[in-house]
Structures are given as C-alpha cells and as structure tokens.
Amino acid sequence: MEAGTLERTLTELDHVRLLNLLRRDTRGDGSSQQVRAVEDLLDASALVPSREVAPDVVTMYSQVLVQDIQTGQRNTLTLCYPADAEPAVGFVSVLSPVGSALLGLRVGSTARWATPAGDDKAAEILAILFQPEASGDYAM
Asked: Which part of the chain is the Transcription elongation factor GreA/GreB C-terminal domain (predicted)?
C-alpha cells in the first residue's frame, strides 16, 4: 500500500449500489471530479459480504462521530445516498467530498478531503454510533 493511502473496506452490496448510482448519475454537471474520486475509491476497496463487515467500518447509512483535526469540533454525520442528503442535519451524501472521504474507513482513521473552496479538511473517526450491518440490517 502506498504511503498516504488508507485501505478501505466496502460491503459487496454498497459497492454494487454505488456503481449503479454512478452509472445513473454521470451527466457532466460539474461533479465529474467527485464522481471520478468515488469510482477510484470503489476500484481500490476491499470487498466483503455485508454479514462479514467489521463493526468499526463506515458503511452506507452508518452514523459516525468525527472530530475536526484543526478545530477539535465534534460532529455526528450519517453517510447516505444523494437523495437522502441533508447536510444541515448531518446527513452527508456519499458523492460529497466529506462523504466519499469517510466511506470504508475504520474508527481511528483520519478522513481527508478538500472543500468546494479548495480548503483541505481532516477529521478523525472517533466512533461509529450506528452501522446497519452491525444491527442486523444487511439490505439497507
């Protein structure tokens, strides 16, 4: 593994759903750089069956507690699909920079992304407060 890259783990179901989302959503609307970043993430991730994913891995619809590396501020975020995104209440799209930065990481990892303004951001994943698979939901 290259220095600076973090291994990501995705469930097979999340992987398939995200590939389908990208195929439907690719329309050259200015988010193509972010779509490419998610495609690269999908290509480089380790895949596991939903029933075998570790409970400390961020999967789709996981609710995570993160701490901003620069400010120390803590936030609770839920990783979701674009149709369910409501950033003001903590529902972040997997196609957003912060969403794709979180996907597949483990508790203790640091997610890194660039804001639309070009600022570099980083947050440590302190805890997973809810993960569908850990709760027995393998089809969410």
From this structure: 55-128
Residue 140 in any domain: the answer is no
Cα–Cα distance measured from residue 127 to residue 124, given in angstroms and rounded to the nearest whole number: 9
Residue 104, Ramachandran bin (φ over 0: left; ψ between -120 and 50: alpha; else beta): left
Distance of CA 71 to the CA centre of its chain: 21
Q: Which residues pair with 10 in a beta bridge?
A: 47
Q: How many domains does the chain have?
A: 1
What's 98's domain CATH number?
Answer: 3.10.50.30
Residue 113 lies in domain: 9-132
Strand segments, DSSP code E, in the chain are: 9-11, 46-48, 63-68, 74-80, 91-93, 110-114, 120-130
Kindly report whether the global pTM for this prediction surpasses the value 0.90. Answer: no
Tens digit of each residue's pLDDT (9 = 90 or more) over 55-90: 999 999 999 999 999 999 999 999 999 999 999 999
Is there a contact between 105 and 58 (Cβ–Cβ < 8 Å)? yes
- Tally of residues, the chain: 140
- Tell me, yes or no, whether 2 lies in a domain: no
Establish if 44 belongs to a structural domain. Answer: yes
